[in-house]
Amino acid sequence: MKEFLTDSPADSFLQHALALEYIKLGDDEKARALFEEILNREPGYIGSYYHLAKLLERNEKTEEAIKWYEKGMEEAKKVVDNHALNELRSAWEELVF
After folding, report:
1. Which of 9, 13, 47, 82 has a CA-to-CA distance to 35 between 20 and 30 Å?
2. How many domains in the chain?
3. Which domain holds residue 77?
């Protein structure tokens, strides 16, 4: 995976996949950094919002998780991705209500 990123360092798909691998390995900090890099560069990369917010939630950073869920919902509405919107809203509601 890392060798592909050497050729395409700003490939959101590859970075997202690597971030998920970091989570599996227990390295939430590297995963978080990659998700944030993706979303700062490409706010429309909807799938990363959920995973980043879940990571923050697991690490008891509830306020930050809520903010990322909200940003994700805004972006999902823009591109009319109702499936992602519903997943993000459901996770957000669990934290807020």
Report:
1. 82
2. 1
3. 2-96
